Amino acid sequence: MNKENYTYILTCLFILVCFSCKHGSGEYHSLHDKIQAKSISHQDSTLSSEAFFSHYKTMEITEGKHSFLIPERKSQITSYACTECHTEPLDNLKGEDLKKAHWDISLAHANTNTMNCATCHNGNDMNNLKTLTGMKVDFNSSYKLCAQCHSSQFEDWKGGAHGKRIGGWAPPRASLTCVNCHNPHNPSIESRWPSRFNTEQIEEAYEGLEH
């Protein structure tokens, strides 16, 4: 390489270094740099979502790396505590001459070969639920039962991707649990009309009335 070419290359590199980083106000090298710069002023923010879920009685849980608030469950169950009626083991409360209870509950969760009432409810400890292996689970932590079969949804829920968040995205995080959206005895979400009307159907309905 002769001296002229060498000098030319050095000059080009010098110009490139000097002028490539000359950004005006509000300009950034990358989107990542912009996010970091814009986030600095919000790190000490006092913005909170607590005011939006103050009507909920909440409790803090920790699942893996995630700690957040969930609604307390037991105070929302009309018939809790169960032992107010279940004063004896469940087998002793069966009989034709005894008053039927929970007649309004129909289990439509899985087929009868897979699940029945005793899958989640412990006949000897009605104030608590139980796992498939017989471990006691508090009603406030009923999501742990759901996680046994619905593991992928549970992982998404822990991270905030599944389920409804209460209040907003500002800390502290508060999320509804499985039973706040799904009936545990019949968890399928029923079909329903969208929140916005279908204008074509409305027009067709009006046309039908005119005729």
TrEMBL record:
Highest taxon of source: Bacteria
Gene3D superfamilies according to UniProt: Flavocytochrome C3, Chain A (1.10.1130.10)
Pfam families: Paired_CXXCH_1
Keywords: Signal
Domain Doubled CXXCH motif: 109-153
InterPro entries: Multihaem_cyt_sf, Multiheme_Cytochr_ET, Paired_CXXCH_1
Official protein name in the record: Cytochrome c3 family protein
Organism: Hwangdonia lutea
Upper lineage: Bacteria, Pseudomonadati, Bacteroidota, Flavobacteriia, Flavobacteriales
